[in-house]
Amino acid sequence: MKEQREVVFYEISDFKYHLENDLRLSNNTISAYITDLIQYEKFMHEVLKIDDVSEIEREDIIKYIDSLKRKKLTKKTISRKITALKDFHKYLVSEEILKDNPCEKINMPKTEKTLPEVLSMDEIDKMIDLIDVSTPLGLRNKAMFETLYASGLRISELLDLKLQDIHLKEKYLVVIGKGNKERKVPIGEMAVISLRKYLEKGRGYILKTPTNYLFFNYKGEKMSRQAYFKYIKKLALDAGIEKNISPHTIRHSFATHLLEGGVDLRIVQELLGHEDISTTQIYTHVDTNRLRNIYDETHPLAKKSKNNS
Question: pLDDT per residue over 280-291, tens digit each?
Fold first, then answer.
């Protein structure tokens, strides 16, 4: 995590400790929280001349949110920043640093739920077929892609996999997800084959210094999220796919294809590691065609209408 400048609100450091040790959130999540709170603290200090969190009132927070709107930030980004404020002030009340929560009646901006970009099976196959497996790096690339699509992991979860987390004989992975929660995720035969080939003929040739990480870059160091993002973008471009692709698109596609195949939403929720099923419900839009087909084939009136047409 990048070093942050010294802050006026020392409580931010306490909150950071809470996120790290009590909630055990990921480094990326904690970094986002602290970055948002330092921006908030800077506005309060420099614009409103407030140097003590106990002086902040609801009207001050509204002024801050208005400043975000003037910057033309997206509603999604503003919502994320408000969430950081709400959690921060809620923590301060729980620690009895504040008596009242000025964020309590702050509303989130109404946002339109955007459907995730999804790849078709044909597009997934095109991307896999383009991966050159004649080199150790190529074997790594195919193993990473096959594992990502077979498991629906977050990119951070994929890059954090250790050798002891993969169980090829039993065909499952042990994944440490958000909130440091462990879950077992099954993988298919194609991913198992690609992983075996990578472990036998790829990993040892790339490895420079001993590490337990399953995947790493050509220097033998842990791969960054940005590096894999660029790789996926280029692979999609080479495959002639014009969609806005990221590693998360593979996760979306995993969930979508499972639902289209008839897997229960609760199972998909568990596989994705979603705490709340409402997060998983965004994928239900993809199931419309399958439901329509089932309805047409099973409902008496629908069948009658079909036969008479």
Answer: 777 766 555 555
Catalytic member of 63, 197, 225, 248? 248
Structural Rg of the chain based on CA atoms: 24
First vs last C-alpha separation in the chain: 64
Q: Which of 81, 154, 203, 252 is catalytic?
A: 154
Taking all residues of the chain, what is their mean pLDDT, rounded to a whole number? 86
Instruction: Out of 155-159, 235-239, 303-307, pick the least confident.
Output: 303-307
Total Cβ atoms within 10 A of residue 28: 12
Query: Is 80 tagged catalytic?
Result: no
178 is catalytic: yes
Question: pTM higher than 0.85 for the full model?
Answer: no
- The catalytically annotated residue of 86, 90, 178, 183 is 178
Assess contact for 4 and 47: CB atoms under 8 A: no
33, 149, 228, 283: the active-site residue: 283
The tokens 């987390």 sit on which residue? 165
- In angstroms, the CA 220 to CA 212 distance is 11
**Distance between CA atoms of residues 137 and 134, nearest Å:** 8
**Annotation marks residue 285 as catalytic:** no
154 is catalytic: yes
